[in-house]
Amino acid sequence: MFDFSKVVPSIPYILQGIGVTLQIVIFATIVGLVLGILLALCKIGSIKPLKWFAEFYTSIFRGTPLVLQLMLIYYAIPQFIGTNIDPIPAAIIAFGLNSGAYVSEIIRAGINAVDKGQQEAARALGVPYAKMMKDIILPQAMKNILPSLMNEFITLNKESAIVTVIGALDIMRRAYVVGGSTFRYFEPLLIAGVIYYIMTLVLTFLGRTIEKRMRRSD
């Protein structure tokens, strides 16, 4: 039987985890987006070593579990640097590095989808490569790949729950703590699931709103 009477007083405590989750997701998204753009430019560039590095980087982070990457950064790296890393910075680094690999593929596909005539016209006018990418190609690519980027953002929001393995007090960890103190796990975990679901709905709505506004600005 469900019994939320013991869990209801702890709902504010669980809700406090939203701030931790959003902090991790927002900063990891920024890191992933910047890194993804740089990696994508390396992949489509003509400098072979950079292209090989970007492809190797992507294969490593797409080919290994995210939880492994997180635990390596939180537990293993301190062995080499001689100091501990707090859970939240470790999560931001791990999620940002992982997201960068996926975002790079999304952006690379978006850049390749832009009409080649745009680049040819820019070169004919003598526009420098960096300026062409910043002012002409990337803005068009971003409009095309916005839905995919929002999906990555939403996925990152849900995957952030694995920070519970390193003790970060996000939504999931707090729900687990409440379960341990009340000896009832189903109810707090169900509440955590509802919170994640609502957050996903909100992010989906924001993504569609931004997409519509960008289309109107064309």
What's this, in brief?
The chain contains nine helices and no strands. It has 218 residues and is an all-alpha fold. It has a single domain (8-216), classed as MetI-like fold, CATH 1.10.3720.10.
Protein described:
Helix content is 80%, strand content 0%. The protein contains nine helices and no strands. The chain has helices spanning 11-15, 17-44, 48-63, 66-81, 87-113, 116-124, 129-159, 171-182, 186-216. α6 (116-124) runs antiparallel to α7.
Give the SSE layout.
Elements: H1 11-15, H2 17-44, H3 48-63, H4 66-81, H5 87-113, H6 116-124, H7 129-159, H8 171-182, H9 186-216
Helix pairs in contact: 2-3, 2-5, 2-8, 3-5, 4-5, 5-7, 6-7, 7-9, 8-9
Protein name: Amino acid ABC transporter permease
Transmembrane segments: 20-42, 54-77, 189-207
Keywords: Amino-acid transport, Cell membrane, Membrane, Transmembrane, Transmembrane helix, Transport
